[in-house]
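Would you be willing to look carefully at the protein I have copied below?

:::
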Amino acid sequence: MLQDLRLTIVVEDSASLGDTPVWAQHGLSIFLETKLGSESMKLLMDTGASSEVMLHNADVLNLDLCNLDLICLSHGHYDHTGGLMGILQRLNRKICILAHPDIFAPKLKARPILKFIGPPFTRAEAEAAGAIMLEARGPVAIAPGVMTTGEVPRNESFEKVEGFWTVEDGQYCHDKIPDDQALAANIKGKGLVVITGCAHAGIINTIRYAQKITGVEELYAVIGGFHLRGADEKRIEATAKALQQLDPAIVRPGHCTGQKAVCRLQEALGERCRPLTVGDSIQL
């Protein structure tokens, strides 16, 4: 169980018009810091779409990437993995990369034409640059009170993966994105924090699975991409109602959530819900 947790949004689709010269880009990266007794942990959740934006924003925000302990990749899409090689080159040392075994499986989109949307590097290239690939389908304990979810069961009928393709056993087929995972943290006296990349498994599925594997029912915060961009009103409404029932104190949707869904969540949750922007610092 953690005493506290601080998040800094390094890469996001939008940036505020303040004095900090950060760059917005489609993608997501979140820098996490916490104290563990006399030690501290620095963890990076996803790496945005490009090394240029990732490293520029990290420098502007005075984030010490050279002392990273661990990198966690939520899934194998380019907008969450594209900055990894730049980070590895800057570190110039070995570092563990937590990911699902299918992260390098073919990732394709066919709107309007067939396009590769997977990591812009191979496993061999990442390992040659210093990545120690730790691939697991199930949850992984990172530190006391912090874990990955691993694969998230798809139980909610209104949360479906659509529009993605892959190749399995020589056959072109729908990609259910089994590599989609999130981070779950238990904050002392507050409850469960769920941090998502895109929540392709469904944001409600992800939250409920995080509750199950951590044994923490009280939901304190949900932060990240909710993948509701392009969702119909029925799904957005069902998500809003489910979040009202889960009753988190903090909801910070961003990246792939979509403006329509963000507006509905703000209506449902009031001041508890604020969209993410690059440079946001969230103390939990």
